[in-house]
Amino acid sequence: MRPELGQATHAVRTGQHQFVDDQHSEALALTSSYTFDDAFDAAEKFAQRRPGNVYVRFTNPTVRAFEERIASMEGARDAVATGSGMGAYIAVSLALLEQGDHVLLAEGVFGTTTTLYRGYMRKFGVSTTVVDVRDNEAWSAAVRPTTKMILVESPTNPLMRVADIGFLSRLAREHDLFLVVDNTLCTPVFQLPHTMGADLVIHSAGKYIDGQGRCGGGVVTGDEDLIAEVRGVLRTVGPSLSPFNAWIFLKGLETLPIRMRAHDERAAEIYAWLSQRDDLDAVHFTGSPDHPQVELVARQQTGHGGLVSFEIAGGRREAWTFVDNLRLVSNTTNIGDTKSMITHPGTTTHGRLPDEAKLAAGIKPNLVRLSVGLEDPADLLADLHQALAKSQIRKLAG
Ligand SMILES: Cc1ncc(COP(=O)(O)O)c(C=O)c1O
């Protein structure tokens, strides 16, 4: 890797290996196994005494190219790709945690992440305390002698609350904990958690990294030693990334810097329009000048991406009426696509959380999440306008 290169150059050039004659665009190595020079070569590679590919569950040249590229963009020394974002979480957890350990988890993270730690990890003797992501005193107070890991999304999805990553990294150092930051929403284009002290950075790669809603996948970046431990889990447990998906992500990274700026510009325009409306109770966007953590946002992020969530006057009925009447914006639960998408988190992404946990995390029945795509903003505004009008007619009709 060449740290002197700029991020947009890494996005296009890093991880380019010539394994097909004279190829210019990165090749897709669709192979699950690799031939060995002789029996000794196979034994040495299996024992990891000699570098080289062994089997697709551990390595593949296209997957490796994606890992190198995203690691360089995150400013990390290494990366390991996984079959999904949740695959990244389970691989990190199996690598770093053991029975009796305690995890501090930010409140309001993606619902399935909460289900993983409060549900499945508990079955294996790992306990979790959920902490308000914005409250540094609460983070300090929640540390126990058995705490091993702090896990945050920043900003959180969908409420756009922000963790003080520098503070959490100091707390982690003080107590010898691992700090893991989910950077799916900002991507390395707008936020570099490793530079603020994060040990590991996680992505759901099917979001902005893909950018066109085609494939699922995940990735973890960090120092070689920690990444080797996570890769060891993949070798044994198996949530590895398919080479085809890795190729899509590798090519997706090439346009990530320009796409993120385009999402950001459109989201700012939509936010400005939404914030003037009187049929919304609240609008959440890290680019808002009224964001309650505006100074922290400015310190940590150089942009905001495409996520804006808002609370529609009324309740679940008005939110659903709004969703059902959108004509251009798709009703789907993904984020980071070129196509704008609407989600009702309370009954989808966060639907499995108990009602108290939803309310504590601010997932109200009238909350909707908009992932602003790359359509003409005027067309999006017209669609939002007509669907909001219908939801308010429904409200008046009682
Ligand atoms: C911020 C964030 N992290 C992790 C995940 C999980 O990733 P995946 O769906 O790829 O398993 C999601 C999914 O929506 C997400 O939004």
UniProtKB/TrEMBL annotation:
Keyword Isomerase annotated: no
The protein's required cofactors: pyridoxal 5'-phosphate
Keyword presence, Cell inner membrane: no
Entry keywords, A to Z: Pyridoxal phosphate
Family matches, as InterPro entries: Cys/Met-Metab_PyrdxlP-dep_enz (IPR000277), PyrdxlP-dep_Trfase (IPR015424), PyrdxlP-dep_Trfase_major (IPR015421), PyrdxlP-dep_Trfase_small (IPR015422)
Homology family: Belongs to the trans-sulfuration enzymes family.
Name this protein carries in UniProt: O-succinylhomoserine sulfhydrylase
Organism, scientific name: Kibdelosporangium persicum
Lineage summary: Bacteria, Bacillati, Actinomycetota, Actinomycetes, Pseudonocardiales
